[in-house]
Amino acid sequence: PAGASAGSCSAASCSGRTHQGTPARFRNMEGKFFNGGRRRAPHHALAALEDDAQEPSRRRGRRAKATGSSSAASTPAASSSSGSSSDSDTKSVPESDGDDDDDDGADPARRMASLVALVAMSTDQNPSAVAKHLRDDAETYRALEREAKGSAGVRAADGPERRIARNLEVLVDALGCAPADLAAIVRAFPAILVLDADDDVRAVVQFLTGPIPLGGVGMTPKAAKECVRRDPKMLGQSVKDELRPKFEYLVEHAGLRPGNVGDMLWLDLETQIKPRVEFLALECGMGSTAAAAAIRNFPPSQSHVLYRHFENPENMARKALKCLREEVGMSAEQVSLAIGRFPKILDYSPEKIAGCFEFLRATCALTEEECRRVIAATPQVVGLSVEENMAPKHRLLVHELGLGEDGAREVIACFPNLWTVANDNIRARFTFFLETVGCSREDLTAMLSSHPHGVLSLSTDNILESMNFIENVFATLPSDDTQRRTLGDGGPRELAVRVLAKVPMLLGYSVERKMRPTVDYIRETHPDVCAFRALKMCTNSLGGTIMPRCYFKERAGWNVLLVTAVHMSKSRFCEKVGITVAEYDEKAAEFIELTERMHPPPAKPRTPAFAIRSAIKAQTKRTTSRATAGAETAEKVSYGRNGQNGATTERRRATRREAAEARRRAAAKDAPDGE
């Protein structure tokens, strides 16, 4: 290579005379291209090689001109004394010089050195290092040697140098590869030097960066560059036969979004991707849909589930799966649920899984079925350390917070996500309820046992908003004997704390969209209802339960307390007021639509994904409407032929209209305004 001595060249075919005959400008090119110079692009390196190829002819012309002038200036005596020998010597100088240059141009070792120099200058590497990488890939090195022999005497612009420069230039122009990126790609995949720029390299780059509607992956140039750097061998793969089938399988069967496929294209389809997807779907019992969802929703912060070697019979996943089924005794549904929520559970050893199960059973006093439910609901618990995480949290619940063994067991069984909450956050939340909200330790224990999600997961601002509203309800609505027997006497703040201990799910309701409209409606229609009963009825649907039952109760003249009618089952209520369930559902649908218009949900952001979902729902709505209309037409024809009872037909039509209306409301709930 350029700049190396005859004895230091690492090229196997170098004869030494290559470097001895290399022009000085070519030998000193390292200082320009390898020490921070600006001319690093492949076409610049190729231009430098072409200039060096023309340098010997310019020198030869200058030497010939100097030789001719000296012969013309010689004296006649000298010319006559030398005779013909002088003429032959004069002719032999340019001929021998030209022969040496032609031999150097036809020398395969010299041509091989120019190929190595081109790669070295384009990738900002030392020529000897490039030669070593090429020699390590024997097949590529032999291919370049054959090209060097076949292109001896051919200009660099027409030889293999031109093809190499074009390959590297495609990566620079299309992906923005820097010399360091080109060096990494050449080191990992030297065969890129013998590929075709248009049929191989450019076709792969266009497939990676092309838009999805036109059959591409849709990656940005930066993402495509990282994808190529991770697996440069894909540059030599066929788009039609290898890359596109892999892309389609990952999207259609593995469930990946098209934008996330680029990180998986380096995997082999037959030996890696398919066996791993089939392991999740078949051997783990998840099914194709659940397996695709687990793959699609895998957290990006962790090593992806498709990177795990499930196809290996000795992989830890098979041992973990056997432990979950046989030692822990989880059902197929529980195993599928646990893997879908936390695929990393397959990475843990059977000893760690069994140790977690034993701690839940022996120390936390859970039954075996409760232990299995906890692991299925929060499989992250398997990855926790028993000594450093689980045991301190259990001591915190039992002793520091004063829940006792029974209280801690109830909290763990009802709220398995407790294991993922930091101990400091639990202490801070207890301090907030005890000091800011004003709960007693007994009331807080009762709330945590019955509704731990509301105590540990809701934001403090929402809790304070709910507390202030409940306190205002007790200050404005009347009290009765039932409220005094249940909550006792006290101020609005004390009663608000006590009702939360009785009905802690009130913390999770929206004040403006749920609790306030319900209390206002009850205050207007039944002003004698006490505050405790009004708040307790907030756990029911305003449009689906309270309003239709109030309507039918008054229409039937049924003199019964509203709270009794609300807490009654639908079938029994319809029997009491003398209506059918279909009639009740139709009226309830009207009230639900009314309440949604009065209290619309918060507007969702108009993102492209939201627009796509809205269009799909609108299309589903139109399809459903056409199907319903067709069914009604067919029923009319059937009624005319068979003479069916008109009342039965009308009830069926009402039921279908009700179902269609419910689907329409569900589809229009998330649709943009005016769609």
How would you briefly describe this protein structure?
With 675 residues, the protein is an all-alpha fold. Helix content is 68%, strand content 0%.
Describe this structure in words.
The chain is an all-alpha fold and 675 residues long. The chain is elongated, with a radius of gyration of 41 Å. It is 68% helix and 0% strand.
Indicate the proportion of strand residues.
under 5%
Instruction: List low-confidence stretches.
Output: 1-39, 62-106, 637-645
| Biggest pleated-sheet summary | none
Q: How many individual β-strands?
A: 0
Helix content: 55-70%
Number of helices: 36
**Apparent shape:** elongated
Whole-number mean pLDDT: 77
Q: Structural class, please?
A: mainly alpha
Radius of gyration: 41 Å
Distance between the termini: 69 Å
What is the element layout, followed by pairings?
Elements: H1 17-20, H2 24-27, H3 30-33, H4 42-72, H5 76-82, H6 84-106, H7 108-123, H8 127-136, H9 138-150, H10 160-175, H11 179-188, H12 197-209, H13 221-230, H14 239-252, H15 269-283, H16 287-296, H17 316-327, H18 332-341, H19 350-362, H20 368-377, H21 386-400, H22 404-414, H23 423-437, H24 441-450, H25 452-456, H26 460-476, H27 481-487, H28 492-502, H29 511-525, H30 531-536, H31 542-556, H32 562-566, H33 570-577, H34 581-598, H35 608-642, H36 646-669
Helix pairs in contact: 4-6, 4-7, 4-10, 7-8, 7-9, 7-10, 10-12, 15-16, 16-18, 18-20, 21-22, 22-24, 24-28, 26-28, 29-31, 31-34, 34-36, 35-36
List keywords for this structure.
675 residues; mainly alpha; 68% helix; elongated; disordered N terminus
